[in-house]
Design a protein that fits this description.
By secondary structure, the chain is mostly helical. It is built from 13 helices and no strands.
Length: about 240
């Protein structure tokens, strides 16, 4: 399957991806639990079918899948992620996210279009939030030029792309670009969707662990522009 027009290229050829996908599909399929699959799909609002693998079981299987394999290149990461995303069952998407989290350091700024494809395809919080904090955030931290891309993402019509921009600094702590964080929150302050309002509160709450006074001051000045949900989430651990 080509992803031309989305990430600008076909899925790259990768011997490592061939091995991973062969092992992965055999291992996951063999452990599938149809009785669990239905309730898991329902819990995730029918975003995708499930194999019925619990998180501990899936991660143990994933460790077996990658055991003894070499460290990937960026092309390997791209191929593995995109090929996993082509499979319908959600556990394959989870594998891809976990794999990218583990190997984010081998990916350059050129991986950002791939990350955007993953964020904007079969989108739901269970994959988007981890990609935002652990993959997109890592890419931007490694190449500050990508801040310009985040400036575009925050006003994107795709709410999951905008949510990713809001959340990409979640793990930055003292390295947080505070001006950009607050600006992003203000740009989306009027958004009506729950997932954007929740993300505003979440990123502010997380930064409040580093600089609670900055968040209090910001909300004292601007709280009238935010939904009550966002304000409650932001102040949950630090009070008004």
């Amino acid at each position: 399957m080509s992803v031309t027009g989305v990430v600008g290229a076909h899925v790259p050829s990768s011997t490592l991806a061939d091995t991973v996908l062969e092992r992965l599909t055999a291992t996951y399929t063999g452990a599938a639990d149809p009785e669990r699959a239905g309730p898991m799909r329902a819990y995730m609002k029918d975003v995708a079918p499930f194999l019925g693998l619990t998180t501990p079981a899936r991660r143990a299987l994933s460790r077996a899948v990658v055991a003894g394999l070499p460290r990937p290149t960026e092309a390997d990461c791209t191929a593995i992620a995109l090929r996993c995303w082509q499979l319908p069952e959600r556990e394959y998407h989870y594998f891809a996210v976990d794999y990218l989290r583990r190997h984010a350091r081998v990916c350059t700024s050129g991986f950002l279009p791939v990350a955007r494809h993953l964020v904007s395809t079969v989108s739901w919080w269970d994959t988007v939030d981890l990609l935002a904090a652990h993959v997109v955030g890592a890419l931007v931290a490694a190449d500050p030029a990508l801040k310009a891309d985040m400036d575009a993402w925050i006003v994107d019509d795709d709410l999951w792309v905008a949510r990713t921009a809001l959340l990409h600094q979640l793990r930055y702590k003292e390295r947080t670009d505070t001006e950009r964080l607050f600006t992003y929150c203000l740009r989306q302050s009027g958004h009506s969707d729950f997932f954007i309002r929740k993300a505003i509160g979440w990123c502010l709450r997380e930064y409040a662990k580093t600089d609670p006074e900055a968040v209090r001051t910001f909300l004292a000045r601007e709280r009238g522009r935010f939904a009550p949900l966002s304000v409650r989430e932001a102040l949950k651990n630090i009070g008004a």
